[in-house]
Amino acid sequence: MSMSTSIEVIAHHWAFAIFFIVAIGLCCLMLAGAWFLGGRARARHKNTPFESGIDPVGTARLRLSAKFYLVAMFFVIFDVEALYLYAWAISVRESGWVGFIEAAIFILVLLAGLVYLVRIGALDWTPARSRRELVNPEPTNSHTHQQR
């Protein structure tokens, strides 16, 4: 690459280069300002967590079921898909019937994914032992009490 070519590249992307330099400089300036202007007080309870006037009790490390994370991922996935449908709804007149068919296929794929999640029990919050308690092992017959 010759010198004139590199100058042309820099000249072509000067706005991005200035933006990048200013952004990095601003971040460094804010970090340095916080370090110089920040308080240096040390006290016995300075670094203890305190929220809403309540002292912490126990540990913050809770063991949560993986179901919480699965539901969070499902929410993010289906929420992002709703954004795609919103973009389609905005441009429905321009996309015509072809766009409508593509959106319908998209919705059907989403529904198939949701049906699959329900069928494998990924959205079932009841623990397995609670499900066993709900199932009655003895079949009841409503006609047994009507004897002559």
From TrEMBL:
Pfam assignment, any one: Oxidored_q4
Compartments (UniProt record): Cell membrane; Membrane
UniProt membrane topology term: Multi-pass membrane protein
Molecular function in Gene Ontology: NADH dehydrogenase (quinone) (non-electrogenic) activity; NADH dehydrogenase (ubiquinone) activity; quinone binding
Catalytic activity: a quinone + NADH + 5 H(+)(in) = a quinol + NAD(+) + 4 H(+)(out)
Keywords: Cell inner membrane, Cell membrane, Membrane, NAD, Quinone, Translocase, Transmembrane, Transmembrane helix, Transport, Ubiquinone
Entries under InterPro entries matching the protein: NAD(P)H_OxRDtase_bac/plastid, NADH_UbQ/plastoQ_OxRdtase_su3, NDAH_ubi_oxred_su3_sf
Enzyme's top EC category: translocase
Enzyme Commission numbers on file: 7.1.1.-
Coiled coil: none
Family to which this protein belongs: Belongs to the complex I subunit 3 family.
Subunit structure and binding partners: NDH-1 is composed of 13 different subunits. Subunits NuoA, H, J, K, L, M, N constitute the membrane sector of the complex.
Annotated function: NDH-1 shuttles electrons from NADH, via FMN and iron-sulfur (Fe-S) centers, to quinones in the respiratory chain. The immediate electron acceptor for the enzyme in this species is believed to be ubiquinone. Couples the redox reaction to proton translocation (for every two electrons transferred, four hydrogen ions are translocated across the cytoplasmic membrane), and thus conserves the redox energy in a proton gradient.
Name by which UniProt lists this protein: NADH-quinone oxidoreductase subunit A
Organism: Jejubacter calystegiae
Gene that encodes it: nuoA
